[in-house]
Amino acid sequence: MESRIDAVGLLLNVIRDNSPQSIWTDSPLEPFRRVENTNRGDIGEEFFNRYLTQAGLSVQKGDARAGRQDMRIAGQSFEVKTASLGANNTFQFNHVRLDRDYRYLLCLGVCPDRIVYNAWRKGALAEGEAGRLVRMAEGQSITFKLTKRVADMLPIEELPDWVRLEVMADPQ
Fold first, then answer.
1. pLDDT tens profile 38-69
2. Is 128 left (phi over 0), alpha (psi -120 to 50) or beta?
3. Cα–Cα distance measured from residue 134 to residue 93, given in angstroms and rounded to the nearest whole number
């Protein structure tokens, strides 16, 4: 009697044997990696909204997905970018735009087991203080990507104090 071959199980074993171990395997935040890239931005904005609201700060979400700013925090306008940690220990924040009307760029980095952030005034971003902005596509100068090492990011627990010390003290 001929036994039946489990083709799906066999392929899964081959995939496992030929794939490098992911830093995300069995991590607490692994479900974030399964989210489509377009939805990661929505998740980042909603996370900041809830986190800062729970910290007692004033937050207003942008009116529309294609709005000129993603949110207002303590009365200041913010563009929000969200990325997960890559195997090379960096985050790539995509579609950073300098032609939008915002005061700060706020980046959320999701690691396998922790959450980090960093933020820059738009002027500092344009002057390269956040790092080098790289064009997303050859020949265009509208959208950029910003790559940050995990060591360049800050623990999320420091964000409310940063808002109180930097954003709320910013006269605009």
1. 899 999 999 999 999 999 999 998 765 555 67
2. left
3. 10
